[in-house]
Design a protein that fits this description.
about 180 residues, alpha+beta, 5-stranded mixed beta sheet, 5-stranded antiparallel beta sheet, 4 helices, 14 strands
């Protein structure tokens, strides 16, 4: 399973929301600020166009019980740039650009356990299905347009993206709030 990461995404462990978020899922859903939300049941993902909007949302998440980072390592959530990947090294998150139609899309999935490389990436036992925001279509997506707020370029990730890709096509699963 995997979530689509477009523009600058905040990716959150589903388990952390269940265990820590004030008001549980109802409280979490009330704090989703836009219609870019998608979930694969292990990760929740919300996309933003600017680092300022990301910072404001991360503050909301922290004020409601989640922890962004401890000792410069993501704990409950991670910020992901669609072009470069996680903005800091994140042991529990895998990020790759994978073939989709005539291009590639940026995806992330939860990875916890022993790391065994498969074609340059670490896979899980779960099938890799891509979960997208409800109504998402590749043709009109951020992936095809690469729209970001210009001032954010200097603030984006310092970590290079692994350009390895999967040879298989993905099944696209639109997501409305699963939980």
């Amino acid at each position: 399973m995997a979530v689509l990461c477009e523009a600058i995404s905040v990716v959150i462990k589903t388990k952390a929301i269940k265990e820590k978020f004030t008001g549980g899922y109802r409280g979490f859903y009330q704090k989703i600020p836009n219609n870019t939300y998608c979930s694969d049941g292990e990760l929740e993902c919300i996309g933003f166009l600017s680092s300022q909007a990301v910072g404001e949302y991360v503050e909301i998440l922290e004020n409601n019980g989640l922890t962004f980072q401890v000792n410069n390592e993501p704990l409950d959530l991670c910020v992901v740039d669609m072009l470069r990947g996680p903005t800091m090294q994140c042991e529990w998150l895998e990020f790759h650009k994978i073939p989709f139609g005539e291009g590639k899309v940026s995806v992330a999935w939860l990875f916890e356990g022993t790391r065994i490389p498969v074609d340059g990436m670490f896979m899980t036992d779960n099938p890799l299905k891509l979960y997208t925001p409800e109504g998402w279509g590749y043709e009109n997506s951020m992936t095809t347009k690469h729209i970001l707020v210009e001032e954010d370029e200097a603030l984006l990730s310092q970590y290079p993206v692994d350009e390895a890709s999967l040879s298989e096509e993905l099944e696209v699963v639109p997501t409305d709030k699963l939980h």
